[in-house]
Each structure stands twice: as C-alpha cells, then as structure tokens.
Amino acid sequence: MLVGLKEVLEEGKRRQIAVANFNTPNLESLIAVLEAAEELDVPVIIAHAQLHERIVPIDRVGPMMVELAKRSKTRVCVHLDHGEDFEYCKRAIDFGFTSIMIDFSDLPYDENTKGTRMVTDYAHEHGVDVEGELGALPEREGSEAMDVRKREQPAPGDERELYTKPELVGDFLEKTNVDALAIAFGAVHGLYKKEPNLDMELITEITKKTDIPLVMHGGSGVSDEDYREVIRRGIRKINYYSYMAYAGYAKAKEIVNTVEADYYHNIGYGARQVMKADALRILKVFSHM
Q1: Helices H, strands E: what count in the chain?
Q2: Which domain holds residue 179?
Q3: Residues with catalytic function
Q4: pLDDT digit string (tens) for 42-57?
Q5: What is the pLDDT of residues 79-120, one digit of tens each?
Q6: CATH number assigned to the domain comprising residue 161
Q7: Residue 15 neighbours by CB distance under 10 Å
Q8: How far apart are CA 142 and CA 122, in angstroms?
Q9: SS3 category, 71
Q10: Domain count, the chain
Q11: Which neighbouring-strand residues pair with 45?
Q12: Element containing residue 208 per DSSP (H, E)
C-alpha cells in the first residue's frame, strides 16, 4: 500500500529499527526491492533520484513506482531522492510521490533553509512529507544541475568540516519545518574507497537535540555492526543503493561472460534475483531479523 514518509518512519521509531530507502531506476531493481519487502513484511521506501533523470525520466518511472506501491502487500513510501530544485520537486508531487528530499546542502546555510522551507510549505499543502539535509557528504551526489553550484571539496582529513553541526539543528528544523533530517557523520555516497569511519557520538549528540527522524545517506558498504549501532543511536532511515546495484551488474557480467548466447531478459532476471537477495539481507539487518 502507498503510504507517506512519516508513517513508515513512525513505525521505525516505534520498533526501534531503520527503514531502508532504495533507489530504483529500473524495473529490475524496483521489483527486486518490493518482492524482498513483501517477503519480510517490512516497510520500505522506493526512490527516484533526480540524477537518474538521464537514465529514466521521472514521467516514465514515477507513475510505475506509485502504481506498484499501491498494489504492494506491504507499506511503501514513494520518495524523491536528492531533489535539486523546486520545479522538479513539484513534478514528483504531481506524479503522486508521497515524500520529497530536497537537497540544498551545498548552498550557504541561509539559502539552504529558505529554499528548503519553500519546498516544505508547498509539499505540506499537498499532503507530502519532506526530508531536508543539514551538513553534507564529501562525495557529492547529483546531476549537472548540482554541478553548476558544486561546492569546493575539503582537503583530505578536513571532511569533518562538512559534518552536521549540532548547534544548528534546532534552528534548521524551526526554519524549514521538515519531517525528517539527513545528517552527515562520516558516510559517503557510492562505493567506499576506504574503510568507513563514522562518528557515532555525533548521532547521539544530535538525537539529544531533537526527536525528528534522522536519515543516513551513503548507507551502502557499512558493516552490519555499524548499521546496528547507528540505528541504536537514532537513525531511522538509511539510504542503500550502490552495493545492490553493483551486485546486479556483477551478476549480469557473469552471465554475459559464461553463456555463449542468451537473451537480455535472462540477464535482467539473473541480476534481479541477486539484487533481491541483497535487499533481503539489508532489510533483515535494518529490522533486527
């Protein structure tokens, strides 16, 4: 069934678990995630990131995501991940998305709060929940639109400059009125080039300042122990995509390299089964199964 972000995160808070957010830029990944969530009967968030517009336009994939969420046996939130501008967020809302993540984290603080509030006011008028971001991940996730306003990357060892500042949390939430808050504490987007070093105490410090659901971006590639620890400290939504997508790619490559002649649908099916297995594993960890 199609539900909002606040509903699934409230369930996460009540059960002391994290709800998984999966980007689903193709039918194979979308079916894999929904089948896994239904098999375990856990809430899930399926997301379209604006940076994937060049892969599959939102006007093609958006209605399909919403319809499959409505037909699902479990609770499914359809979410815009890393919305980059107000107009794109409006398009997602028009297509029936129940949640918007607006990412102005690369802008100066005042511009971030003002832009986020504009999106929040519009979304709330249309019954849609909003996730904002305070702080930023070292590796920027975004498309050409984000590249135009690309921030200067910190020097090695200075990544903490991008971490969420606890003293700004209260002010940010008051000015933006968001329903969930993405924070930066050491995770990165994409495949990890080195062992992740997460600042667990920062999560605890922020949870002392607010009871709003906290979000972890760059959730792929983290150990099960670290997943359990960030959840214990208050993270209620974890974005997971890169490692599942890579698992699908690896399986497709294996099929291509080992089968003399075959059809594309068999490649897609093989990749889908591997991605489903990966999604099942992650959903179990996030749900303490």
Answers
A1: 11, 9
A2: 2-286
A3: 81
A4: 999 999 999 999 999 9
A5: 999 999 999 999 999 999 999 999 999 899 999 999 999 999
A6: 3.20.20.70
A7: 14
A8: 22
A9: helix
A10: 1
A11: 21, 77
A12: none
